[in-house]
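We were asked to recover a plausible sequence for a given structure. The inputs and outputs are reproduced exactly as logged, with field labels preserved.

PROBLEM: sequence recovery
POSITIONS: 101
GIVEN STRUCTURE:
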């Protein structure tokens, strides 16, 4: 399922869409839309009653099936991801990791 699929379901149901970087990487869209634009599109599905926009962040586990979460987060890729976030959009980032520490 692509982010566009998630956005369509969100529109039909009124539920907010959660952007997930790893799932997005596994199912890359065929257009040139930037990561920031996709996060903003997801953000537009969030209403004040939903609270602050949430996104999921994880990194691919080496040697595992595409989309499998790594046990931890490497700093540099995470910093590069943060640099792509929309600057004026408050966002909560949920880290999806196995070690939980």
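RECOVERED SEQUENCE:
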């Amino acid at each position: 399922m692509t982010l566009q699929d998630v956005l369509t379901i969100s529109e039909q149901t009124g539920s907010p869409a959660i952007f997930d970087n790893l799932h997005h990487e596994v199912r890359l869209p065929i257009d040139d839309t930037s990561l920031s634009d996709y996060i903003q599109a997801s953000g537009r599905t969030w209403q004040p009653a939903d609270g602050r926009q949430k996104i999921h962040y994880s990194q691919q586990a080496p040697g595992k099936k595409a989309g499998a979460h790594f046990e931890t987060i490497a700093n540099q890729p995470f910093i590069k991801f943060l640099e792509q976030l929309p600057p004026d959009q408050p966002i909560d980032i949920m880290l999806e990791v196995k070690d939980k520490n």
